[in-house]
């Protein structure tokens, strides 16, 4: 009876420290912990609590009671969590999910910075991981938010985005009106990217598309400022100069070249791709921004000049 009493007292005296241990919230300002393959459980725990004999005993007791023999590798959020919450995360492998948002209107240069600043392993420099059916690398991704775990390969997301873009464009291309004069999906992506950079809102994209399609149809230059800017990247200083407009060496200068530039100038949104593929040449030939998010469309150059004068623009 004496030994039983001692045993009970020992158990009861252990319960308090044990509960305090598992409910302890580390106050070490660590937001996350990365568990790599081969990391010992003791070394992992040392990042959270002092390395003492009592803590080792309490930790081993917890592992025994919860039938845990290993922690799963990955990145875990631990801030403001108790030890029992953290250890269960490690056991179940509930790692942090990151997100990567590929923005419409962004360029291949923007994408490179995005990947470099992510938690991905960037094995896709300037989209060299894509075996593309298109003769260019710019503008061949579908803008969306993609989810991933730390140290995943960037190529897994990039290929997913590319395949989505190709599927969407192929489906839309099958619905292209007969009088839409674009020759192939390459031209569709190029025009869609210009629409993306020119449009102030989604509602006017079909009108902008109709202007450019009409200009292409009659052999008129597109004269789109965003194409000049793209040709000056990645060193564009934010100001289009007269010399830039007159520059015949810029292959993206649509004030000098006829028809479309050689590649897209950005990643187009779905609405811009729809506008490029599903629109037809229209009655307008000119447009000018009359608010920060919209344009005024004109049928004649005289009307266009009149609106520019009304708006007080020097163009």
Q: Could you provide a short overview of the structure?
A:
The protein has helices spanning 2-22, 41-46, 53-65, 83-92, 108-116, 154-173, 185-198, 205-218, 225-232, 242-245, 270-278, 301-311, and strands at residues 32-35, 74-77, 98-102, 144-148, 286-291, 294-298. It is mainly α. A two-stranded antiparallel sheet has the order 1-2.
Uncertain runs: none
Number of helices: 12
Give the number of DSSP strands. Answer: 6
* Helicity range: 40-55%
SSE topology string: HEHHEHEHEHHHHHHEEH
Radius of gyration: 30 Å
Percent of residues in beta strands? 5-15%
Average pLDDT across residues?
A: 92
What does this structure look like?
- With 315 residues, this protein is mainly alpha-helical.
- The protein folds into three domains: 2-92, no CATH class; 98-169, no CATH class; 181-311, no CATH class.
- Helices cover 44% and strands 9% of the residues.
- It contains twelve helices and six strands.
- A two-stranded antiparallel sheet has the order 1-2. A two-stranded antiparallel ribbon has the order 3-4.
- Helix 7 crosses helix 8 (205-218).
- The longest helix has 21 residues, at 2-22.
- The protein is elongated and about 90 Å long.
- It starts with a helix and ends with a helix.
- The mean pLDDT is 92.
